[in-house]
Specification:
The structure is a homodimer of 324-residue chains.
Chain A (H helix, E strand, L loop, with lengths): L2 H13 L8 H12 L5 H13 L7 H21 L4 E2 L2 E2 L1 H4 L2 H18 L5 H30 L5 H26 L4 H28 L2 H4 L5 H4 L5 H9 L2 H9 L9 H14 L2 H21 L5 H14 L5
Antiparallel strand pairs in A: 1-2
Keywords (chains A, B): Magnesium, Metal-binding, Transferase
Family (chains A, B): Belongs to the FPP/GGPP synthase family.
Pfam families (chains A, B): polyprenyl_synt (PF00348)
Chain lengths: 324, 324
């Protein structure tokens, strides 16, 4: 079964999910956010991981859906907290309805995510739910740290990596671990897949930070420099602040809190110049490579023939837009 | 083991719970709301139910705690939605911190509630989590209906009973069912306990509505007529509106949206007069009695000697402040 067939199976499972009917104010927002789409990368990782150990991935379909429902629950609640107007180019739930609706519909989504895991074989259920719960709490911790960092003057690179690990990476790691556990994979293989996913997740987020500044505008689909304009403490910004001399530091600081579109071009240009002086692009690429190599090291350690691991390896490379 | 010893065991379990440490912004509000106390009625029902079937209730302690953590999660999120300034006489979490904190800490509480159930014996785990999840979703549905009703002109008595069943009663029912299941009670006994709890829950909420108008001010601890002042659609109000003649209806409607303290006494007096004319007090007492008798009928149907059921029966009577 190739990746396209898996995707189709997954999409079929997702669109067949029933969250509830009444009251409609509670359930319509769930159907709305789930219909916004997205790359469905997390549930796909569950299935690809499962497929490494057993071609028959039927029993991984609902657990894969659980991960996607959980992910969208976090988006629904994060969007309230971040006051985000748009999600995937459409109105966010709290904008289209209101914050109360987004709170309560999100709560039910978390419940439904757990329910989708309850079909897991009895002897694996407690373990799966324990790991899922740990991951869920970590994702919340990551979101809290992200909000804390916005209000803080100083954030270290180490703290930043810890935050994106919790907020973004651990759910990718869990997705891969879940697929392995469902198919009865050896514990060490499941753990290596978890570590592979965590590290790919970190690399992926760093790459996101990088592309925001150095990405191809047409390819990336977002405004170049959006993070700079909104004073976001990304890996690039934190590295620059750590290494800047007094003048460079002053340049960055002088642009802070200026977020108006009219000065956007000047601000992005000025901060990018500092980045260029400090060779931030290259340093970030090195870090991405470091985490990616760590990830590959864990993939290599899995006790399976190379060809069984090639699809996941390929997907990771594709996420990184790399050739090898 | 008497009810006081059970309560002590329960309080010990609750105060020994560890929710997490970092970031403290996420976990402090959880410790705060859990320390506000309350009657702990739901976890106590879990233990009393468990004790009916087996004196050794050790294995029910963490599941009982799960129910209390879940209940406090719903309070934390409901208080945001209801813009409530106080909870048990103290600042609500969204007031003491902010709404984002209350959203995210609440989310983690729901995760922790699930985690506290994961020690349930393997062969019972899926069932327990399925019933818990169903109950959790129902409680959210009840809160949504409650919010809907605030904005609606017309609400039928039937719809109101449905709402309080979901919002309040089903968690009492689940608590009792949970205790029975954990001790391996026969399915029919667990189901009768669930029905007993649901009906006691409805009766209890109706009694709450009644006491708000006809309660002894000193005993009840709240301002008499608070529901009338805030135009709350209680059982009493909805029954009155259904049975009022045109003049009585106009009296009630003329006071609507007048919530200032300066007119409080006059408003409460005027609406209570209409209630008195329509004999609403007696009708509500009849309804409470109806649901209470339904509850007792289910308790009687449980296949255990009478003395095993006397503590729960006594507690229900106590909740109703009845002698028999």
């Amino acid at each position: 079964m190739d990746i396209t067939t898996l995707s189709e199976k997954l999409n079929h499972t997702l669109s067949a999910l029933r969250y509830g009917e009444k009251p409609k104010e509670l359930y319509e927002p769930i159907r709305y956010i789930m219909a916004l789409g997205g790359k469905r990368i997390r549930p796909l990782l569950v299935l690809l991981s499962a497929k490494m150990f057993d071609e028959d991935v039927e029993k991984a379909l609902l657990p894969a859906a659980a991960v996607e429902v959980f992910h969208n629950f976090t988006l629904m609640h994060d969007d309230i907290m971040d006051k985000a107007p748009l999600r995937r180019g459409q109105q966010t739930v709290h904008e289209k309805w209101d914050a109360n609706t987004a709170i309560l519909s999100g709560d039910v989504m978390l419940v439904r995510a757990y329910e989708l895991l309850l079909g897991v074989e009895q002897d694996k259920l407690a373990l799966v739910l324990r790991l899922f719960s740990r991951t869920a709490a970590e994702v919340c911790e990551g979101q809290q740290l992200d909000m804390n960092f916005e209000r803080r003057e100083q954030v270290s690179i180490h703290e930043y990596i810890h935050m994106i690990t919790l907020k973004t990476a651990v759910l990718l790691g869990f997705s891969l671990e879940l697929g392995a556990i469902l198919q009865g994979a050896p514990k060490s293989d499941a753990e290596h897949l978890k570590a592979f996913g965590d590290n790919v997740g970190i690399a992926f987020q760093l790459r996101d930070d990088l592309l925001d500044v150095y990405g191809d505008k047409d390819k990336f689909g977002k405004q170049v420099g959006g993070d700079i304009l909104s004073d976001k403490k990304t890996f690039l910004m934190l590295t620059a602040l750590e290494q800047a001399n007094e003048q460079q530091r002053q340049t960055i600081i002088s642009w802070r809190d200026k977020t108006d579109e009219s000065i956007a071009e000047d601000k992005v240009k000025a901060v990018t110049e500092v980045y260029d002086q400090l060779n931030i692009r290259h340093q970030t690429e090195q870090q991405i490579d470091l985490y990616f190599q760590k990830a590959i090291h864990h993939l290599d350690a899995i006790q399976l023939p190379k060809e069984r691991k090639s699809t996941i390896r390929g997907l990771a490379l594709q996420l990184m837009e790399r050739d090898s």
